[in-house]
Amino acid sequence: MNVIQQIVDILNQYPEIRYECRADAIRVLAPNENGYEVALLVHPGRHYTVCLATWHMEFYDEHSAIGTFLGGLSEEYRLEVARRGNVDYLWRIQYRERYGYRNGSAVGLFHYQFWRKKKIRYLQNRLLRLPGKENATVM
Fold this sequence. Notes:
By secondary structure, the protein is mainly beta. It has helices at residues 3-11, 62-71; strands spanning 19-22, 25-28, 38-43, 47-52, 55-59, 77-84, 87-97, 100-108, 118-123.
């Protein structure tokens, strides 16, 4: 079974999740204005790109790609989005831990209004629960 079909089989267990797919890509739409779109692209040679809004990462291992894709649909991941003026310029993935969130990698733009006041907001999807994470506590 290919990666896209594995994900579709999981998503079909959650009728409230809106998604679109084709042979080489799948995209879950943001559930609301506080969430974000999650996508997975399959490249030739078993290479994958996972996107959480504008943040993205390349994978050569399908299990890691699937795990990151599904994590992006859960409370286990969130995006910290920085804005100056009316331009979002930095997207940082954060991973849930027992007592908060740990920063991961970031993707950013270089052309933004650096002189404007910085504003931070957090986007998070709460569409599915990952196995083994039922009793986690976050402060």
